[in-house]
Amino acid sequence: MKKLLACPLIMALVLAACADPSTEAQRLAASQPAAALEPLDAPADFRGVWILNTDRGENLGMMKAVNETIVATQNADSITFDMTDVFAGMTTTRTIVYDLNGAVMQNKAAMGAESETVTRWDGEKLVTTWTEEGAIAGTETQRTETRWLSEGGKTLSVSMVRGDNPPLLFVFEKAE
Fold first, then answer.
1. pLDDT of residue 90
2. Hey, how many other C-beta atoms are within 10 angstroms of the C-beta on 30?
3. Cys staple from 115: which of 102, 132, 143, 156, with CB 3.0 to 4.6 Å?
4. Which CATH number goes with the domain that contains 74?
5. Strand ranges in the chain using DSSP code E only, listed in sequence order
6. What range defines the domain where residue 136 resides?
7. What are phi and psi of 168, to 5 degrees?
8. Cα(first)–Cα(last) distance of the chain, in Å?
9. Does residue 144 form part of some domain?
10. What is the pLDDT of residue 26?
């Protein structure tokens, strides 16, 4: 049943891909609070507006058609990613909050599944483990997301790994 529910969402994401993300990115960049300019005492500073560049990603499959913009806000204890996805003419939004001290947080995965997330620093990389109910009753699935910034902080890379599958690599560029 869950797999059937995912099909309409995938189609919705495909349809939203036709929209122009640059206008949304400009609007989001202008909405950033002045506090985002203050120094942050953390291994990495992910704050800012990030635009997905699927041409630089790897193993994206049909997700290559998604236009995604992320507005990241961060403090010493948490990081929030406000995501706007445009796929096949449809726009979806979601907010993810990670506790930077390792506490379990409830978040919704891209397909809407309720998930538990646990986040930790690994040097300058942010590593998050997502756990959600599996397709078979009584099972769970896990995936690990690792985020890191390029030198100079102009590129945000996100690697997603589930089981023995090849990692997906998403590359975002910082909006100016």
1. 95
2. 9
3. 132
4. 2.40.128.20
5. 48-52, 67-74, 78-87, 90-99, 105-108, 114-122, 125-133, 140-149, 155-161, 168-174
6. 2-33+44-174
7. -90, 140
8. 43
9. yes
10. 47
Query: pLDDT value at position 112?
Result: 87
The answer on pLDDT for 120 being more than 90 is yes
Closest CA to 36 of 46, 26, 27: 46
Q: Based on the structure, what is the number of domains in the chain?
A: 1
Q: Which residue has the tokens 């102009």?
A: 154
Is residue 135, in this structure, part of any structural domain at all? Answer: yes
Is the pLDDT confidence value at 32 over 60? no
Task: Summarize pLDDT for 69-115 with one digit per residue, the tens.
Answer: 999 999 999 999 999 999 999 999 999 999 999 999 999 998 889 99
| Domain assignment of residue 84, yes or no | yes
- Are 132 and 112 in contact by the 8 Å Cβ rule? The answer is no
Residue 12 dihedral angles phi and psi, to the nearest 5°: -60, -40
Residue 38 lies in a domain: no
pLDDT single digits (tens) 47-56? 999 999 999 9
